[in-house]
Amino acid sequence: MNKKMKPIIYSKKQCPECFKTKVYFSEIAGVEYEERLIDPDTDPIADEFRALGYLSFPVVQYGPTLREAWSGHRVDLLQKLFPA
């Protein structure tokens, strides 16, 4: 992971998994992140997510490309890549 890059959280409205991921970053790990709120039905980036196999939200990008990302609230990856 690029230590200088802020993780990007692609989230959608009223998403409990997105909320839990943001809470982990801000309240548990103390990591600054960028949030991009998208509409999965109309935003073109949602097609890229599906093509890469990211089928749930949030999509968390931790590197310079979407290939360095995961989808869903993944406590195992949060703790591994962004330890508290």
Describe the protein's topology.
Blueprint: E1 8-11, H1 16-29, E2 34-37, H2 45-51, E3 59-61, E4 69-71, H3 75-81
Parallel strand pairs: 1-2
Antiparallel strand pairs: 1-3, 3-4
Structure description:
This protein has 84 residues and is of the alpha+beta class. It has 3 helices and 4 strands. The protein has a 4-stranded mixed beta sheet with strand order 2-1-3-4, with helices on one face. The mean pLDDT is 93.
Q: Which sequence of SSEs, written as H and E, runs from N to C?
A: EHEHEEH
Q: How large is the count of helical segments?
A: 3
Helix and strand content put the structural class at alpha+beta
How far apart are the termini? Answer: 16 Å
Q: Count the strands?
A: 4
Mean pLDDT: 93
Strand order of the largest sheet: 2-1-3-4
Rg over C-alpha atoms, rounded to the nearest angstrom: 12 Å
Low-confidence stretches: none
Shape: globular
Tell me roughly what share of residues is in helical segments. Answer: 25-40%
Main sheet makeup: 4 strands, mixed
Care to give the gist of this entry?
It contains three helices and four strands. The chain has helices at 16-29, 45-51, 75-81, and strands spanning 8-11, 34-37, 59-61, 69-71.
Supply the key terms:
3 helices; alpha+beta; 33% helix; four-stranded mixed sheet; 4 strands; globular; 84 residues
